[in-house]
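FORM 12-B: Structure-to-Sequence Request
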């Protein structure tokens, strides 16, 4: 499936008119990273940056606008000129934020032009060794005993980390107190310091610490076991049907001309097909997707509807 999507994107690159390819880009492109350094959007942006620059023939400058769960940077891009010179790398919080933050000035479906999905991400239930649990069964025993006395760290109130924890609590009938951080990077730092005992987070953000033993993997949230952690069970093995994932994608402001959209899509799909880029992403437990702008647009529309319903039904609010 992934190979077919990437192949389709490469074929699209060959279909672009020579004129369109020559006219864009003619100056540096700014890629807004709306979440914290060390988080998923930062990691994906840096891993694809160099190859994108080589393909496009212009610098791709990372612009960190980190505040309010990614809202500030996303608002900025929504209001930027639709000329292909301001882009944004978004995490799945992008579709949830309009239901959570009062100062959101964008509609995830209407105000952006999807360029390409990058990856889907497996998430992991991870614990600080000092929490006193070594496996999923021990964790569940602890969680049921402690209830709201158990602190669960999240990457932010509107992130997949938070929503995955909400779904996990619902599926396992446990309760806990959520401690929100400003992104995956700060959350991991807090866990390494023993300030919060457990989280559910995209595996790529914590993989190095899982390998070193500084954090312990208790379970993965995917339907099947992760190739990188074959001995770690899925949550679904104990609670059938449970499966959640994160995602990352590239967007431009709505109204960006189609030749520019096609040029950027082709560049990103080619980047994802580059062996070293692909291998680095897969080493972080990401599934490389690629694909067309239309496929990504349909995904965003579905995610926006799904998360809107979850937030309403669960009465989720910003703490």
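FORM 12-B RESPONSE
SEQUENCE OUT:
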């Amino acid at each position: 499936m992934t190979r077919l999507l990437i192949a389709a994107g490469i074929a699209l690159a060959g279909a672009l008119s020579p004129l369109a390819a020559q006219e864009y880009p003619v100056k540096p492109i700014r890629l807004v990273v709306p979440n914290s350094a060390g988080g998923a959007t930062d990691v994906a942006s840096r891993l694809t940056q160099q190859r994108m620059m080589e393909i496009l023939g212009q610098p791709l400058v990372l612009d960190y606008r980190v505040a309010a769960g990614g809202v500030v940077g996303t608002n900025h891009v929504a209001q930027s000129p639709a000329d292909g010179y301001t882009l944004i790398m978004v995490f799945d919080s992008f579709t949830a934020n309009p239901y959570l933050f009062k100062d959101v000035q964008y509609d995830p479906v209407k105000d952006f032009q999807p360029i390409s999905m990058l990856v889907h991400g497996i998430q992991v239930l991870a614990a600080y060794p000092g929490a006193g649990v070594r496996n999923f069964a021990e964790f569940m025993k602890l969680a049921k005993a402690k209830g709201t006395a158990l602190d669960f760290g999240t990457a932010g109130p509107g992130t997949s980390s938070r929503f995955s924890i909400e779904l996990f609590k619902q599926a396992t009938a446990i309760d806990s107190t959520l401690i929100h951080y400003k992104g995956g990077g700060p959350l991991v730092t807090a866990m390494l310091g023993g300030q919060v005992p457990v989280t559910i987070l995209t595996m790529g953000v914590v993989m190095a610490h899982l390998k070193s033993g500084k954090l312990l993997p208790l379970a993965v949230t995917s339907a099947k076991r992760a190739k990188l952690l074959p001995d770690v069970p899925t949550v679904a093995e104990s609670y059938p049907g449970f499966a959640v994932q994160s995602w990352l994608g590239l967007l431009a402001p709505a109204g960006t001309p189609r030749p520019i959209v096609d040029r950027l899509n082709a560049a990103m799909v080619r980047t994802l097909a580059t062996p070293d880029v692909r291998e680095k992403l897969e080493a972080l437990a990401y599934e490389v997707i690629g694909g067309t702008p239309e496929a990504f647009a349909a995904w965003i529309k579905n995610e926006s509807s799904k998360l809107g319903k979850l937030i309403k039904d669960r009465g989720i609010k910003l703490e």
